[in-house]
Amino acid sequence: MNWVIGIVLLVAIGYLLDREVYFYEGVHLGPRVQSWLYDRWSRKYDEGKKESQLRDDEMLAQPLLEALNNIPEPLILDFAAGTGRLSYALMNRPEFHGRIIAVDLSQGMLEQAASKLRPYLSRFEMLRHVSLPLPFPEASFDAVCALEVLELFPGMDEPLAEFARVLRPGGLLLTSRGTEESGRKAKIKSMPEYTSLLERTGFENIRVTKWWKLFDRTLAVKHGASEPVGARSLKDVLQCPACGEIGWEDRPNALRCAHCGRGVAVTKNRIVLG
Ligand SMILES: C[S@@+](CC[C@H](N)C(=O)[O-])C[C@H]1O[C@@H](n2cnc3c(N)ncnc32)[C@H](O)[C@@H]1O
Ligand SMILES: [Zn+2]
Fold it and tell me: 3.40.570.10, 3.90.198.10, 3.40.50.150, 3.30.1300.10: which CATH number matches 50-222?
């Protein structure tokens, strides 16, 4: 009889692991487990996404360039940047003169981004930041991109509200919606639910386009209008985790808060460990 209990236990553990690790990608296990999982997956990540990445120029860079073409040097937040596929597509376009701040909870994923985007490190900066809220004041960015990540939060309201907060009025959101075809029913929102959530969060001019099997692409504009933010660097918008102020001095392998003295480490690949 003991062996029956053993087998039942093994099947239950296997099911739970499959559901929590592969299906929910660690979302219920906390940011430490999530970042550990993504660190493990980081080297193989691009290989698995090769097919959809073939269209990154057409599906991601082109619509962003069109929407931002009246801003000479837009400041873009690439949230959950992963291996930097969106940033890479944008930086490869010679007409893009803006700056990008890439945020992710996984240092491993950002290391991959750093190696791909090495020629652009003067305009591409990276911050490892583990949870919301984001360490930026409101209206800090001309555009916020958050691809293939909304489903990794327990609810989409919190990340969407945070994107709306850090976007300037009239700023652009580029995000994605898990498709019915992905078979991930528990993680996706129906189209009406999704668009009404975006509207309630303060977005308008919502355009959802078929992208690839697992995700639709979404473009939306934050209600209102304001002057472009323009080319600022991470040091101009990053709030100190201790005192909340902005103002940084360069130190060897670190940034030091000019207000309270708190240090923040910077890796040799220039990832700021917030
Ligand atoms: C499926 S990947 C998408 C990466 C990239 N946006 C792309 O389209 O290839 C999800 C990414 O979200 C990151 N992530 C998950 N939860 C996050 C959070 N709360 N804050 C920052 N990054 C997060 C993961 O580390 C991972 O790099
Ligand atoms: Zn400080």
Answer: 3.40.50.150
